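Hypothesis: this fold can be encoded by more than one sequence.
Test: take the structure tokens below, design a sequence, compare later.
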């Protein structure tokens, strides 16, 4: 066995590895934007797998090259409403004897014991050498320990310079040479991530509204986990949220863009319906859908007292859907985006709109995100996004939001042949559910933004049947 292979086995199997990193991770993890367990103490860590993508050298001076250690770590925390007691996170740790000044912002800490004693550990994605190594692994399908690398038919060129995309939130992304973007899922779940599954299905249907996956990697440790997806980088494309805010600031109409976005959404929904099953939501499924909305409302009201006075009015939206199902009404369901808003869209320089980030709402369990849903869920998310944009501008421009909402639904109806406004109870229920989610999110992460979704809560709770 070679020295490198021997070192890899020793480190990956070392029972002292995680205990030696634990104190550093205990301080570093809660500060990361993608860490979902904020506000709850970390009680323990457990190691799912450890793989040396680039073996850590056991000897050599301070200029010795870095190592890249891939970890899947379970984080144990006290149980709270709507929060799991254990989450699994993907960590890509760079290891160096001495950290260069340019990498100082990525430092996690200095290890004092265990197999990495005396080394500096840092977020390896910020090291261009290690980031380039990830692309090299994706270029050539195969296995490395419990990691499995897959690739589509198109070859991936080498030598593309990497850079971290700083705007990422619940995950991390690397851009390679302005040609590809690699999304690294930080919080991982058993099963295929929809951000791999759905773009692959859309590519098979020939839908050009979503960049097709070029390569991906997964874990086979205990259960399958999607870890990352490489897709074409839409160079020069502009974020829909920023475009909307600029239109507001300039006093420009965004209606034509909203209509085009409606058509793009309808094209994606049509392709997903052709590629994957489309079961009908009958009484039992609709009851469970509405019950889930009620549970989320109750959990949010428990966490955000400002929501409590509105609970009866908001619940009426969910009860209206249940009442219709008991009268024999059913609705079409299919796979959807799951977290659609302006920030999940990109407009190219030619005016062509694309949809991105099909992971769904990260706070929801993966089986729920992979289940068929009414298309109204995506439509409601975009309608809420227009309202968010308008409320983010001073003064509040209610007419701008109303025109965008109407134009978006018009565009959707033109492309799909179905007007989402024809199912008002279902659309209202999903818009209410989305606003409740927004209230909980803002209360936890951006309290200054809480008045934005609360304005929608006030409106939705006041609607009479």
């Amino acid at each position: 066995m070679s020295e490198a292979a021997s070192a890899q086995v020793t480190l990956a199997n070392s029972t002292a590895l995680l205990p030696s990193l634990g104190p550093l991770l205990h301080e570093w993890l809660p500060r990361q934007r993608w860490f979902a367990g904020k506000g709850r103490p970390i009680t323990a860590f457990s190691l799912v797998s450890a793989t040396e993508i680039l073996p850590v050298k056991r000897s050599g001076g301070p200029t010795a090259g870095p190592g890249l250690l891939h970890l899947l770590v379970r984080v144990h925390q006290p149980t709270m409403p709507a929060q799991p007691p254990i989450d699994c996170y993907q960590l890509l740790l760079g290891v160096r004897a001495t950290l260069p000044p340019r990498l100082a912002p990525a430092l996690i800490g200095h290890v004092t014991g265990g197999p990495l004693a005396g080394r500096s550990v840092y977020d390896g994605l910020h090291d261009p050498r290690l980031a380039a190594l990830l692309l090299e692994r994706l270029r050539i399908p195969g296995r490395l320990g419990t990691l499995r690398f897959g690739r589509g038919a198109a070859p991936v060129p080498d030598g593309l310079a990497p850079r971290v995309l700083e705007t990422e939130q619940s995950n991390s992304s690397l851009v390679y040479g302005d040609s590809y973007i690699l999304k690294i899922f930080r919080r991982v779940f058993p099963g295929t991530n929809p951000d791999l599954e759905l773009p692959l299905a859309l590519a098979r249907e020939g839908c050009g509204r979503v960049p097709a996956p070029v390569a991906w990697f997964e874990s086979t440790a205990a259960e399958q986990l999607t870890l990352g997806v490489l897709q074409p980088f839409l160079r020069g494309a502009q974020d829909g949220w920023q475009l909307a805010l600029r239109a507001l600031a300039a006093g420009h109409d965004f209606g034509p863009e909203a209509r085009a976005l409606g058509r793009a959404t309808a094209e994606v929904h049509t392709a997903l319906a052709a590629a994957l099953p489309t079961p009908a939501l009958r009484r039992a499924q609709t009851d469970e859908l509405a019950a889930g909305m009620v549970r989320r409302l109750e959990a949010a009201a428990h966490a955000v007292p400002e929501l409590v006075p509105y609970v009866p009015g908001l619940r009426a939206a969910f009860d209206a859907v249940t009442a219709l199902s008991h009268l024999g009404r059913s609705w079409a369901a299919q796979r959807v985006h799951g977290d659609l808003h302006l920030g999940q869209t990109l407009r190219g320089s030619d005016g062509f709109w694309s949809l991105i980030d099909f992971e769904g709402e990260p706070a929801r369990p993966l089986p729920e995100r992979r289940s068929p849903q009414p298309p109204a869920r995506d439509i409601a998310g975009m309608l809420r996004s227009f309202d968010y944009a308008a409320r983010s501008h001073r003064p509040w421009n209610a007419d701008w939001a109303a025109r965008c909402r109407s134009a978006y639904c018009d565009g959707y109806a033109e492309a799909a042949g179905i007007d989402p406004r024809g199912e008002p109870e279902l659309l209202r229920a999903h818009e209410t559910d989305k606003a409740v989610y927004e209230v909980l999110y803002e209360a936890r992460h951006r309290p200054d933004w809480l008045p934005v979704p609360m304005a929608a809560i006030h409106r939705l709770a006041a609607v009479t049947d």
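The chain has two domains: 11-232, 238-462. The longest strand covers residues 44-54.
Hypothesis status: open.
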